[in-house]
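Researcher: Please generate the 3D structure of the following complex. Treat every line as part of one assembly.
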Amino acid sequence: MKATEPTLRTFATVWAALMVLLALTVGVALFDLGPLSLAVALVIAVTKAVLILLVFMHVRYGSREVLVFAGAAYLWLAILLVGTFHDYVTRNWLPGPPAQRRQSSGR
Amino acid sequence: MNDPGTRSGGGAEGMEPLHSHFASREQQREATTLGMWLFLATEILFFGALFLAYAYVRWSFPAVVQQASRHLELVMGTINTGVLLTSSFAMAVGVLFAEQGRHRAAAKALAATALMGVAFLMIKGSEYAAVIHEGFLPGFTANLEPVSRPGGGYAGLLSEGGGPVPGQEELFFWLYFVMTGIHAIHVAIGVGMLTLLAWWMRKPHPASRASLNTVRNAGLYWHFVDLVWVFLFPLLYLAGHRFQP
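Model: Done. Output below.
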């Protein structure tokens, strides 16, 4: 994971990339892509986050331990989200009283 | 090679005060960095609970979130994202200068970062004013129904046709104010921290309080605040497309 130390040029390149991604995410969000809208917005956000984590936050230039520490929280975050949504998403899979129907319109 | 400090490249790194409980400056740097990442992990989980709440509301009432999102100030939100991303760039440059031992240049970069943080908070403030003026402050919503209507409960949240109910928009604005509000508190703390560091580093030979590792950790904190915003912005401001077909 160790790479040569970043320079001013590295940071400027990442900043430019972040600005392009910002313009892209706003541009895409102006139009209706249906369920794809959220997916595109999240892919762009994750790309920006990875750039910030690896370069600005020096994870790319740090030790393996730093990588583990920086990544661990996302594992717990995934447990939080998956653990909660495995319930909500599967609630209507079996027939039963339609007490807590999910709102069906739009997306 | 006997002095552990000379191994880590000399320069600003070699000038770093070595505390007695560390064997070398490398160990000190590694331990300090890991400690900061551990703190940031708790911060990620702290914001994570709010993102979970958002995910639930968006999953349950997608049309409502899209509709409510269009009431937010897209232009101000976009400018603010640009300001915060640029401030992160200035912060990274500040850490780079500090590592090169250029304390005055680093102090300027940190001050610039703090100034952009202030600009972010000012834009956020006028945005809040605009959203509140439109009547979307939860609890004081003039043109929205309250979320929990008498005898409502879960059933009260669902309209018969499955369409959006005005009261549900309030859920979105609760999330908007709480998530951006807690984020803004983090920005304000960062601004205070960076101002203090820039003040300490203004002289060619700064006090040990503004040590290289302190500047690095302040940088990690600031980038983390930026990181949270990178997700808040699309989820809150870009949930609903603005051009109607």
